[in-house]
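Sequence only, no structure available. Ideas?
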Amino acid sequence: MSTPQQFKLPKRLESEFGRMALKNFRSLEFMERKLARFRNHLHFTMHCKHHGLYPPSLSLKTAVKGPHAQRIIQNTQHLLLNERIRQIYYTINVTKQRISDLDESLFTCLPVDVYTDVKNWVTHASEAEFSKCCSRQKDKFSRLESKQKLSRSDVPVSQMSDDATVETACHLLGNTSNKAAELRSDCVQVLKQSKPPPSNISKEERAALRELKEDKDITILPADKGRATVILNKTDYQDKANDLLNDTNTYKPLKRDPTSMYRNQLIEVLQSLRDEGVINVITYRQLYPTSSDTPKFYGLPKVHKDACPLRPIVSSCGSITYNTAKFISKILSPLVGSTPRHLKNSEDLVTKLSAIKLADNESLISYDVSALFTSVPVDESLFIKRVTLTTSLSISTLCIPQLSLRLSERTISV
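Reply:
I predicted one. Tokens follow.
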């Protein structure tokens, strides 16, 4: 929903940054709306192609009768439809390039906060245009489908094996041929007219599942291990979660939400890396925090342990550091398994244990670390990572150690 501040954005651009900034802003908004329309247009046209329908603007008529004339008309309509698809793709690519140029121009001349407001404005405009066009195209397709009948002909695929897929058949027929398009249309109609298979659960079981779903006094969630489903009383789940959060050695309450402060700090780091040439503009935009969602805390029950404690999980999807964390993960992934103490899986553990010979006075002992991830020392971890990144030749050729260290330090502090 638009806010009063957004309505003042065009005037602010003109008064503070000149008419050229306002012109580029309006052009960017126009191009985003145009891109939304043509994406809908592409979806509508591809839908027509897969269902063997032709829009009224491409439907041809002739006074010449006979099956040969009908085949000529059908082939011509199919060629025209393919040409329209090609032209739509071309228009989309040109529009994307124009949007990229306008975005680059605004990015270089506007402050970060104003640029963010501009992106939010054009994103809202694009989504509104896409939704409006989508509704209109759906109605248009429904009317077209009710008026126009599918034209079918026999498809010579009888020599294929029973387990051959539709796309394999289309490939053998030629993906761009009329026969392949007709085969896809036939398959679509068969699927639309087919009945769903019988349910693998009884009516009573389905009613029980619905009753569990509607019960507000329980919580249904997956187990930490074993692919089991756990049903807990909601009060028990909340008590277990509060027991974790009340651990003052690991968690502490905050007086206010620090998300905006951490977001500004991360932006400063990214800007300095961009200005120093460590990252380019494309990488900067990929890592730029566009979302400010707070990470979500939840717990997964450990059914293999007494009292069924919860494993704390903090989901950072959509948070300010999510894109940065993904970027760092790709850089650090080659380090995984580079130490002799690394275990790939349970099979690797069995293999290594089988090679160990114990004396009569020796025993194997296993340890379980409580709250492993929250107990990892941050400073020591950064030091080890710095040494490994700067000394490993295989890693240094695949990543930028300076970038990884500076980003990870800022991400961990956040």
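Residues 1-6, 149-164, 395-399 have pLDDT under 50 and may be disordered.
Hope that gets you unstuck.
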